[in-house]
């Protein structure tokens, strides 16, 4: 009953490609997003506003086309991509951990430490063009990796719940960031002096192409990260170990996989993604350090991104672009009398709906299990 | 016309893809002890779940004491006087004995609060009347399995059950506790109760039951009078063909010592020693069986040997080399194969494909591992196909099948294939045939013997004494973390081993006969 | 020393909402449903209370109390989403809870925009008035809630059955208890508690609702549940501890000895303490055994 190995391998490659980019759950993601928008539309109608304005704002964000005035401005596209970048990265952060069986609600904190480290390097680092912001990227990446790895280690060694631990660390990171940023020379209670030019991630080409938006070099970082994510998880030995650990920690352990190391590594990589998001925002969208007055919420919204993207590389990319669109459309919506919070509501609804997907999966699994238990009659 | 306590007529119950009960008829007389016999998956638990209101039947009818009834949930079953003692106890571990018994039917004071004092009195009353000794104030997590079962029984007696269903009650008991259970059955019968006993153990049916209904693959085969039917006849009805009770195997040719455990102590997860100063030897080319009731240190011993848990003291030598400080991975490389007792928890990643599961211990070696840490999935699939062929693993999509979608028997075959493929020096096999049907069991037994004949050392741990006696060359009995005795399988007497499992040292083959009643109250 | 004692009313003011929310979280967990949406539910309650009060304060005496009632009802209503998703649809409870937090963040400010045309509620003239000794009535409310919860959970049959649902739902089911119904009640109760807590917070600590009003109090409550080992006694203690830390952060400017330290030092305290204790007590798991697992009706 042996199958030709070539057929098996080809079938696997095809299935793999499909899974990697959309996943057979892609249909569910689409349905959930549509449902979210539907509810958002109904809500707008319910408060007496015109949903057409919301969609016009969204269209303008995506294409730069203003349907009411008939003008076109590429800046909106640039801003859309700029808003999407940290969301995609935080989505990758959550998704990577999720593939390993961990619920990383700590992307917010990992983002903050990355951001803070970047601000530091921006103010104190060598003012060599190219090197300066590269160093900041590395610093932010490592800071995030440390913050995430810490949680992973606590979970692996002491079975500390990563949900509670990461939430706690989010707030610790927030207050530490405020404290250290205020310590910087000539900083006041809400900002530091401006960065040297060499620290910024500004990219002249992008600026010209998008008519002065804040789109920056971080775009390359995001693309690299998406590819890296896909490659590590689907193609490498580390990815195999992480997936095994995520799907069944005990069986992985029994086979000799070093589970503590895997969980720590996974959270560290997840933290690194979020840390990079922090750098890109700090040095791409701002020209001075900020003493955070509140949470930027990229980390939390990253959760929604990962869930809709089903924790795959391609899915997270698309999903991040979607939520980026929602976020950057907010000012456009306000100007058309649509309260911008509707985008948060849509995000929240999407997350709730997506949580049901897990429920469906659970029911399916339970059914399959019973089927398999009694299925010997079919196999023999 | 006999007075029937329970009649289940033409009961049909269908789950997606499988007919669990296919027009099954069961008639239980008043005040009799009636057994339901069948293999794993024959439909006996489903049938009783229908009776207890956990499932709605898709066809057929139920009569209790002659009256037709519909039982929609456990409350209605309880109201009809039907109670069920489950195989996996449904007890809240942090609650006391009394709290568990009264849960759902709590006696109240006038102000509405729970009247614990009167509850404890009632528990003591029932305990006295039926000879079920329990400590009303003890927490479930700190009492023995035997006492926990008595609490389960008291739960249903508290609700005035007349018809008691026992689902595989002896699976978790020591031979001594089994004897106690038999006398509890007699006491209950004397008090006028009707007992339905679900089991696959022929010997217990012979001892306790008066009539027996046999099910096979969801179908009703027949109801027989136990006294006039032999175990072989009942087995044949259960399986559908003549069953071999012994396996054909050659004499063992033991070689050098492969595994030597010296004075090993391992702590349990609760902090007390589960394995106490245990010593054991397994040679190449022999199968050593570890006989004992669940919970006597077998799991911890296996965990210490395979590296899942560190030993507190003592030595573990593999071919002379002390492996006690080696990681799990290193022990796999050193030549230890492990078929774990819980195939879903430790053996397989259910959401992985079959070939990924088969490569769980070899993914980091050529040819699957290429340069730079990249994996060669084509090679993995080829390896999977190879093992599927060799071991006749039935999987709908070959290497691409998700492990979750395979039957229990084929999942187990896959695990065994993976471990044997490593050519281990020592093969540790725990509960290999739990929950499997006879066909799969025979296959797995044959494979284990084949490995022995290739010169491997095999350590087999099983709770089924029959399996140990059939397969093993030497048998070590474990009780409370210590090896009580080691005997040669060829000359061993089952009763003697049973006595050793209960902790009686140096048991003479003729000692520990079942019809000697142990002192009441021993637990 | 007297300044420390003088701080007592302020400490109680901050402890009260945390305690109430934490008790709600405990009820939910003890029945087997993880509820990390306390933050979002408190936000709903705070928004509802602030809106009700500011709209009615000039026309009605005692609008503060009505506001609390509305807050409780709003919290309960919103938690219905989590209950339905977790219990009936067997969704992933952590994800569903996170979704509620996101929804609350957006929903409350959205409604502010609709009703008040700004991202916050209109400030009211007078919030809740303190009583004897400067202690707000919310402290007494919290105490009453604590005692009532303990009584029902440990003295009444309902409590025995609810706790069984979180430890071993199959055992509860076989005893004839409707596990789903119990869990629904527990989640709705936790929503009511969290809503009430949010209302208490906004009416005593500030003059209006903004998206920074709750600012992590719900997560501190979560930490208090965990640190308090899921028991009313423990939670009372941990809520006082964490509430004190938060209070110190705000009021330390009044204390000579602490003026040198940065405010962030105290703000971090509750979170750091929880983290450390999570690690220190990691050996034993105090959470109810079946917490987080959806209940499937099944065979034996």
- SS-based class of chain B: alpha/beta
What is the CA-CA span between the terminal residues of chain B?
42 Å
CA radius of gyration of chain B: 25 Å
Mean pLDDT of chain B: 86
Mean pLDDT across all amino acids of chain A: 82
* Broad shape of chain B: globular
Query: Quick one: biggest sheet of chain B?
Result: 6 strands, mixed
| Tally of distinct domains of chain A | 1
CATH class of the largest domain in chain B: Alpha Beta
Q: Tell me the total number of β-strands of chain B.
A: 20
CATH superfamily of the largest domain in chain B: P-loop containing nucleotide triphosphate hydrolases
What is the name of the CATH topology of chain A?
Answer: ABC transporter involved in vitamin B12 uptake, BtuC
In short:
The complex is a heterotrimer of chains A (about 375), B (about 525) and C (about 300). Chain B has helices spanning about 45-50, 75-80, 95-100, 115-130, 145-160, 175-190, 200-210, 230-240, 300-305, 330-335, 345, 355-360, 375-390, 410-420, 440-455, 465-470, 495-500; strands at about 5-15, 20-30, 35, 60-65, 65-70, 80-85, 165, 195-200, 210-215, 220-225, 255-265, 275-285, 285-290, 315-320, 320, 335-340, 425-430, 455-460, 475-480, 480-490. Chain B has about 525 residues and is α/β, with parallel strands linked by helices.
Explain this structure.
- The complex is a heterotrimer of chains A (380), B (523) and C (300).
- With 380 residues, chain A is an all-alpha fold.
- Chain A has one domain: ABC transporter involved in vitamin B12 uptake, BtuC (Orthogonal Bundle), CATH 1.10.3470.
- Chain A has helices spanning 5-21, 26-46, 51-63, 74-99, 107-124, 131-158, 162-183, 204-209, 218-235, 237-247, 249-254, 259-284, 298-308, 313-328, 330-335, 342-374, 376-379, and strands at residues 65-66, 71-72, 191-194, 288-290.
- In chain A, helix 4 (74-99) runs parallel beside helix 9.
- Chain A is globular and about 65 Å long.
- The longest helix of chain B has 16 residues, at 175-190.
- By secondary structure, chain B is an alpha/beta fold.
- Chain B folds into 2 domains: 4-239, P-loop containing nucleotide triphosphate hydrolases (Rossmann fold); 257-335 and 423-501, Rossmann fold (3-Layer(aba) Sandwich).
- Chain B starts with a strand and ends in a 22-residue tail after the last helix.
- Chain C has 300 residues and is an all-alpha fold.
- Chain C has a single domain (2-280), classed as Orthogonal Bundle (ABC transporter involved in vitamin B12 uptake, BtuC).
- The longest helix of chain C is centred in the middle third of the chain and has 27 residues, at 179-205.
- The chains are: A mainly alpha (380), B alpha/beta (523), C mainly alpha (300).
- Chains in contact: A-B, A-C, B-C.
- At the A-B interface, helix 1, helix 10, helix 11, helix 16 and helix 17 of A face helix 10, helix 11, helix 13 and helix 14 of B.
